[in-house]
Write a structure and sequence with these properties.
Layout: H1 2-24, H2 32-42, E1 47-51, E2 64-66, H3 83-91, E3 96-99, H4 100-103, H5 106-109, H6 113-119, E4 124-133, E5 142-149, H7 157-178
Antiparallel strand pairs: 1-2, 1-5, 3-4, 4-5
Length: 205
C-alpha cells in the first residue's frame, strides 16, 4: 500500500511540474519543443507530433516533433491526410484524448490504406491522439499525437488519463498564444512587467 501511495505522489509531482512548464511556455514559445519532449518521455512515447491538421479554412500552426522521422513515408500523399483527427472530431467536436485502436479497430487497420501506407512503414504499433483545439477555436486547431513502436507496450486507459490531466492546461496556454492580439494594459498596472509570472487584468465583462 505504501508503495502505491509513493508512486501516486511521484505521478502528481510530474503532472505539477509539466503544468508549470505549460504555463511558462506562454511567454517563451521556444520552450514548446522542450515541453513536447517532456510529455512524450512522461508517457514513454517513441515518437510524437504537435501540429495543426490540414482542415479546410484553418490556419497552420508550426510543427513540433519528437524523434519523428518521416523518411519512410516521404512522398506518400496520405501522410498529410488527418485520418485520426477527423475520426476524433466525428466522435465529439471538442478537446479529448483517444487511443488509435478506439478510433480504428485492429480489424480495420489490416485493410485501411492509411494504416498500411503510413502507420506500418513508420513502425507505429500504438498511438494516442489528443485534440487540444478544434477548428472552432479561432480556425487554429492543434493536435498532439504520441506513438509507440516495435516492442513497446501499447498505450492504455491510464495513459489516456495522463493526457486528460494536461489537456485543459495545454488548451489554455495555446489559446493565450494563438487567439487574437494582446490588449493594452491599463496604465496603473504598467509595473506588472517586472513580475516573473503570469498576471491577468480583469474588468467587469
Amino acid at each position: 500500500m505504501g508503495k502505491r501511495r509513493q508512486t501516486h505522489r511521484m505521478s502528481d509531482a510530474n503532472v505539477s511540474a509539466i503544468i508549470d512548464e505549460i504555463y511558462g511556455a506562454i511567454l517563451a514559445p521556444e520552450a514548446w519543443q522542450r515541453l513536447v519532449d517532456r510529455i512524450a518521455k512522461w508517457l514513454s512515447a517513441d515518437m510524437g507530433l504537435l501540429t495543426s491538421p490540414p482542415l479546410a479554412g484553418c490556419e497552420a500552426v508550426p510543427l513540433i516533433s519528437y524523434k519523428f522521422d518521416m523518411t519512410p513515408v516521404s512522398g506518400e500523399p496520405l501522410l498529410v491526410y488527418p485520418e485520426f483527427t477527423l475520426r476524433a472530431l466525428a466522435r465529439a467536436n471538442r478537446p479529448e484524448s483517444y487511443l488509435f485502436d478506439d478510433l480504428m479497430p485492429p480489424d480495420e487497420q489490416a485493410t485501411s490504406p492509411y494504416w498500411q501506407r503510413v502507420i506500418v512503414p513508420l513502425g507505429i504499433t500504438a498511438g494516442i491522439i489528443t485534440v487540444i483545439r478544434t477548428a472552432d477555436d479561432n480556425r487554429r486547431p492543434v493536435v498532439l499525437s504520441l506513438f509507440r513502436r516495435g516492442d513497446s507496450a501499447p498505450f492504455d486507459a491510464a495513459d489516456i488519463e495522463k493526457m486528460r490531466a494536461l489537456l485543459p492546461h495545454l488548451r489554455r496556454a495555446l489559446g493565450a498564444m494563438l487567439d487574437g492580439e494582446p490588449q493594452a494594459v491599463p496604465e496603473q498596472a504598467a509595473g506588472g512587467h517586472a513580475l516573473r509570472g503570469a498576471v491577468f487584468y480583469l474588468d467587469r465583462d
